[in-house]
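Final report, closing paragraph on structural work. Over the funding period we assembled a curated collection of sequence-structure pairs, and we close with a single example.
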Amino acid sequence: MKRRPWYKHDANDWLGDPELRRCSLKARGLLEDLMCIAHNSDRYGYLEIGVKPSDPEWIIELSQIVRAHHKEVSTAWQDLLKRHRIGIGSDGVPFIKRMVQDNQYSLQQSELGKTGGNPTLKAPLKVEESESESKSKSKIPPNPQGGEGESNPEEPEPEPKPPEPKKKVKRKRFVRPTPLEASGYARSIDFAMDGEEFCAFYESKGWMVGSSPMKSWQGAVVTWKKTHAKKNPSEATHKKHPNQQDLSKDMGMAL
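Its predicted structure, as stored:
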């Protein structure tokens, strides 16, 4: 295991996560210890302690590491699995979803930073040349082996200018909505949606849309509305305005 000094811990996300708030106090305490273990793991975010949850010795081994009774650890562990705070990898090794996602994002930004940078600092310096130097460079020396005006093959070709580095685009950080915010936005677009169900659904997926992190939860609400309209076409039909109903009655009476 590696020894890393510290890791990022967002207090607002910890206190504002609705699914995490549903976990018991013991489960949240166990999760804090598991995050410390995963932080020092060779694979960042994974709980590599020598055994897997499929092994009978998993709870016993975990209880010895966190120094707690195996019954309390078993109950807290099941609570974390139920609330989707822990994921199980394809190799059977559990991992902390948020830590793995943050680490992948950090590595991605680090790679992008290697190709970017401040163009004003990395651009080659332009030195002004005198008129005599520019004229001497424009003259092509005669080639003793070729005709007049041909370049000398022994003369090295000028090095091409390096491409200008791409400007690094600063992305706006995604902020997870609360159930109240999600249901409020849904009402603003005439859609009756359970905000807790919406947040719980995407929390179980780590706020991922397919294989990519979610960029706009408002767009996800609009997608839910369209999907609901396709599944329930009868509810999507527009009702007549009361004034239109009165007008149709008057026209019927006139006839």
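The chain has 13 helices and four strands. The radius of gyration is 32 Å. We thank the funder for supporting this effort.
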